[in-house]
Amino acid sequence: xxxxxxxxxxxxxxxxxxxxxxxxxxxxxxxxxxxxxxxxxxxxxxxxxxxxxxxxxxxxxxxxxxxxxxxxxxxxxxxxxxxxxxxxxxxxxxxxxxxxxxxxxxxxxxxxxxxxxxxxxxxxxxxxxxxxxxxxxxxxxxxxxxxxxxxxxxxxxxxxxxxxxxxxxxxxxxxxxxxxxxxxxxxxxxxxxxxxxxxxxxxxxxxxxxxxxxxxxxxxxxxxxxxxxxxxxxxxxxxxxxxxxxxxxxxxxxxxxxxxxxxxxxxxxxxxxxxxxxxxxxxxxxxxxxxxxxxxxxxxxxxxxxxxxxxxxxxxxxxxxxxxxxxxxxxxxxxxxxxxxxxxxxxxxxxxxxxxxxxxxxxxxxxxxxxxxxxxxxxxxxxxxxxxxxxxxxx
Length: 395
Hints:
By secondary structure, this protein is α/β, with parallel strands linked by helices. Helices cover 33% and strands 20% of the residues.
């Protein structure tokens, strides 16, 4: 009898716990306290990734079949978890985007009463502010880009960073990246640039403004993609690789959580998966908002490369998502192989105290493609530039 009472007691506690609603973060509440009438928000549900990856069906599959089943399971689990919230959201007329790769819902222009109503839906969840990230390159002469001369543009000699990592040796003995697909999530890519138009693989997505052909209103994404696989002036580490891209950052170099997650899912939905994905964005520390997407990439055979940030030279300055254990992060070095002063350092500023970055590569005074014209080039410095050199070694 005593055992039965204990079981009934635990059952009652479980029912009470499950009937409790979620919480609204203090930082989001402060926005309303400061006078905001509506705010964008993220309704974050518990991760389903461990349930997806432990499913016995996956153990019997490999390759694309395994990846497709992983995606299907994630969609099923998150759809079930999000169903009561999506029903409530629909009844209130809230604009929302659900994500299956991270089990959360992006809410647009929501009032406090609407959020409070959503918070009463039973279950464990949090309604919080969306994460916003930026690119943070150290740019040389940003007002007057150091364009290369016509004579320099015609040369095929590898740029110093490309030579420093030994890429020309690999070119002569093995490959320049032929047969490899690479991707970046950045400010976009100038698809008409002479260095990049020849190896565009025909896949592009722009959740920022819906452009239909690779576009870059900032310049950062074009520069980084040029270092990955640019085909002119010796700027690209893997010039024979093909590229695809998702524009997750706007023309000011800022990226919303919703756009970045839309890009992350788009990468997973590609019929031909890229071998590596370059991510030269981030901010803050110990943020886990992108971890499930990174985990899915890795289980799909995609290497997730993140620049570690330009918050150096002090220790414990590694930025997220690069400071996370699931991410592969890159720091910047100079021509003399010493660390760039701006390059963020580890260890990660969390309880794990992870060694970060995993690798460093040339990122100081790197020349690559730009957006001033379809034949323009500019020098930039930053861990964004370093990430491309290290990433392209995978090709």
